[in-house]
Design goal:
By secondary structure, this protein is an alpha/beta fold. It is built from ten helices and eight strands.
Length: 264
């Protein structure tokens, strides 16, 4: 685990493999460990960079007033510091919204987009009543005493957490900082990236779990319609965290997409 400093924030990351750069951007209530299977499956052909966003994992605490654009600027600074741009940028759930915001502000750093079980922000992808229900659920989750805080969101898995990653998921949950979780969910509730979608001019893969309940396939289809030339691959039987539920199929789909873009 290494780190770079961006505007006084220490941003931790891991870098493995050789080849074209591939960024993996984790979801809310998680850190870079969420991508545990992917470096093994992809580092043979790609330089895989996994960050812990500010406020998560081994990165420093989230600065007060940190916004969605600030996450995107931090990610851009990491790409520039490592000399990786333009990079293939993959984000799951909240991470996909961060990646869209990266493209909004720094399109020159993005070679392609891989949007996984994500949203154009909750406001940009979900009905208002669903957003309101999620905001209320987040309020209740964050109102409990710190020792009772449980960051597990409903509907993450099609058939419950995969047994082989149960210990990993428990460890990540123990390390979630309520302040970060609250900020992520508040930003997600107000995020609306729909204006970015028709401006996307890089190859885009939409990679979705067939049984995703948090970001249903209707969300993927709306993104598919809005992003010119986008491709949709559905992973059978997987839910919202498809990279953990179907890691081999996930990696296979990513490799096939990136190989189709050659020369990389």
């Amino acid at each position: 685990m290494a780190s770079v400093q961006v505007g006084g924030v220490d941003v931790a990351y891991t870098r493995v493999g050789h080849g074209p750069p591939l960024l993996l951007v984790h979801g809310a209530g998680a850190d870079g460990r969420m991508w545990r299977p992917q470096p093994d499956g992809l580092a043979g052909e790609f330089t895989v960079v996994v960050w812990d966003e500010p406020g998560a994992g081994r990165s420093s605490d989230l600065p007060e007033g940190f916004g969605l654009a600030d996450f995107a600027h931090c990610l851009a600074a990491l790409v520039e510091e490592l000399g990786l741009g333009p990079a293939h940028a993959a984000g799951l759930s909240w991470g996909g919204t961060v990646v869209l915001e990266l493209y909004r502000h720094h399109p020159e750093l993005v070679r392609s987009l891989i949007l996984v079980d994500t949203y154009a922000g909750w406001k940009g992808s979900l009905p208002p009543e669903e957003v309101a229900a999620r905001v209320e659920g987040a309020r209740r989750m964050l109102a409990v005493p710190r020792e009772e805080f449980d960051p597990t969101l409903p509907g993450l898995f099609a058939d419950g957490p995969p047994a082989r990653f149960a210990a990993l998921l428990d460890a990540m949950a123990r390390d979630v900082r309520p302040e970060t979780m609250g900020a992520e969910l508040a930003l997600m509730a107000e995020a609306d990236e729909r204006d970015v979608l028709p401006r996307i001019a890089v190859p885009t893969l939409l990679l979705w779990g067939e049984r995703d309940e948090r970001s249903p396939l209707d969300v993927a289809r709306a993104l598919l319609e809005a992003i010119e030339g986008a491709r949709l691959v559905v992973l059978p039987g997987a839910g919202h965290m498809s990279n953990l539920e179907a890691p081999e199929d996930f990696d296979r789909a990513v490799r096939a997409f990136l190989h189709s873009l050659r020369p990389l």
